[in-house]
Amino acid sequence: MLRSFAWVAFIALFACPGVMAETPDFRLFGSVGNETHLTPGNPSSRLNPGDFLNIPTVSNSLDFNLFTDVVPEDKSWKFHLKLRGANDWNRDNSVSKIEVGELNYSVSLASWLDVQAGRSIERWGTGYAWNPTGVVNPRKNPSDPTDRRDRYQGVDNVQVDLFVRDWNVTLLAVPEIDWDGRDGKHLLSTGWAVRAYRLVQGIDLSLSASGGNGLPNSQGVSVSRVVGNALEIHAEIAAFQDSVRFRPIDGGWMPQTKKHVDLLLGGQYTFPRNVNVVVEYYHSGNGLDSVEWTGYQHMVTGAGQELISGNPVPLLIDNLYYSVLTMARDYAFGRFYWLFHHDKLEAEVLVLANLRDGSSLLRPGIYWKIHPNWSLYWLQSELLGGASTEFGHLQVSRVSDFGVRYHF
Question: Model confidence over 248-270: pLDDT tens digits?
């Protein structure tokens, strides 16, 4: 896969007349980090009674991220690469891999036309923890909204940006390619996405749509506005026409296609002394309603009885279909951030709450910049909620992350 992308970049770089007419600026940067995780099993979880899953208590993640930018002085074109290597270890196995997170070439062909080809990370939408309109974005983890370890990987696409009458229109063709197929590379699916952006009376407005057999059939709107010097408010709404999800129906898991709407409302305020607060409300029409959640709990209870009888398969299946922050329809997010002690210490508290049952995740963290290039951090995730709640079903009782990272 890496060799294939290198050839694409090489051809693109030299195919454009005048690209090598001047010596471009070359920039190399990135980071190396290690993170140790403590994840004791939750024996009171209905999905992990008595810790029958035997979850490893200690695991470790080592990674490096390398970024390269090549840009001429007139910025008429750009070559960008993100290369990521990682080793994830626990007592049962160790997995190492190297991935091309981004590799693309972009060129400005006219004052109103830019073209890009390759793999890129898109960031559509205005939300902090969720992005309903981000159909081409990497899937965001609300408990790690800043992607602290740079794990995001882009999508392969050909992108055209048009600048017409105060509008910035982005057109994407998104093929899904199996680069590692045994019988060679295969085109698995194709999709398309379009976004139109404009600043309207101080409001950042984006209209978006997507389709094809590789992307959801969706239409969305996102807005944001800065009020004064400290307040920013934002919102996103997206309608999905044919989402498929397995749902608990009549004691079993059945795929169901449905239309639904996702909505995000939020804002952030920056106080004096480097204090920032973010608050968001998220509704997903694709989550489980109260009847489906009750049905799921009945299935888990029955599977627990099967486990006692010596049959773990039903409970293992129910574990596969459990995905935190998707088992309800309404959630809240909050973030408190404070930069202090000569900008060397950062304190952060994240709160994620299921608004139906009141269960939540509380994740305080502290970051210490011991050197301009070195930082240490400790993140502690605590789960609050009874056994019948969404977070009470989590298979671990808490998560502790201890990390060190070097930036260059």
Answer: 998 899 999 999 999 999 999 99
